[in-house]
Amino acid sequence: MRVVCISAECEPWAKTGGLGDVVDALARALGTARASESAAADEPARPHPLPQSQVWPGTGAVMSVGVDAADALGEVVPPVEVFLPRYRGMEVPGSATVRPLSVPDPTAQEGITDVELVEFEARGYRVRLIDHPPAFDRADYYGGPAGDYPDNGWRFGLLCRGAIEALLLDDRPVDVIHLHDWQAMPAAVLRDVAYEGYPLVERAAMMATIHNLAYQGWLSRAQAAGMFFPDELAEAIPASADGILLLREGVSRAELSNTVSPGYAEEVLTPEFGMAMDPTLRRLGHRFGGILNGLDIALWDPATDAALPASYSRGDMAGKAECRRDLLAELGFDAADPDPLIGMIGRLDPQKGFDLLAEASPAIVAAGGRIVALGTGDTRLVARLRAVAERHPRSVAVVEKFDRALARRIYAGADLFAMPSRFEPCGQGQMISMRYGTPPIVHRTGGLADTVVDEDERPGEGTGFVHAGATPEALAEACRRAIDHFRAGGEEWAALQDRGMLIDWSWETGPAEQYAASYRRAISLRRER
Ligand code: ADP
What we know:
By secondary structure, the protein is α/β, with parallel strands linked by helices.
């Protein structure tokens, strides 16, 4: 099966957040999934510490219904193709080819804009850039200090139409088009309103993935006129509507939609988490589910992490103690003090719950915990954290930076890792911390609830500590429990660390197979239409 992705981001070419990492990791994993399957025959399977359903709850049931019937569709044939805008400053390898591409454009005088299609293979997949400087050669991807670019409808319409036109030019059947976030959703609308009668496009099944429900891509009628020709506009937007919500259109028209963890997929069906999309998502029924993101386990590995003062692994944890001493000294804390250090890393955004950490800090410090918070963002949150650090200079440190190397030293050198997010589509920090032998303390929500098992609830099977309710009290209580376990130490603590380190988060063995299965199902749904 031929798989094509459309996305506004893909690491290492374009990234502002998790979307870029996920699109890259998935494209790579889809291209190598078969290779890893055959490699697995020679290697003993990695042991898994938890029943499979604990780590991937519901995914089999939610996303794989009816897959068997479509199995004949076969494997993903590499290379997967990824369409992206060519943003300012994006370097392309010398091997890249450049071709002219004519793209229908409602804002162009003749209705056509000539762009360039820049293509190359890298990292195991094919990158296909839509290069049109008036649209994409700008200071930022989505907008400036004044807000979103007003012509985002035109820009991302051009990306999606450019992708479709490139596929028509290829003149080879496409089985699946995977749309990531609102910027790619115009492709689903265009399939229905602009490319009827083009079998190559009509035949393609679409899968829509929501990485962040907070960004839904609203276009007013005037903005949508940059994306659709008048007859298409009349079909895409009901006469009574003021405009179009691209994410809603995309998930409604795609054969299948998902978000990036099963737990979050359930939560967003409720008004509390649904950000006003819950009625739409509920209507999708079995066409909507959750697939938990993986983690790039080569990139995140304490045995090879060059940012660490010492490496370590499950078999030899001595290096972790050295990382701890080094980090405590770097923060100006007493490295000889056995009190645990709790790390927290993330965007300083109300979502992530740094305010809860600030509120809970006195109680955590009173219980004997020390804290290091690393993040950038909301200045009021920074001020609150700084105030706490000033009151507790020997036990609370705040670093307001985006510092990848320090983040790695914290994942490795801390004893515990806090992630009290109010909501969390998947979350990466908790997976990384487990991989680094640093048990996480998380709020029972979304992907956090899917990935962390509370040691007090399931003694001897836990991988961290989970609190119900995003409140300072609940966080402090979970920290107290975690501190008690840390202090008790011994084999039980080592086993708790080890269970987290043992989890196989790899994209190849987990999520890539689930996406491939979902693609098959999307294809069969498209064919049944
Ligand atoms: P998000 O909602 O921001 O995508 P995730 O937990 O999924 O949250 O991923 C965030 C990633 O960014 C993690 O790898 C985390 O380590 C990293 N990160 C966040 N803030 C910082 C920072 N200030 N310095 C270094 N790395 C950071």
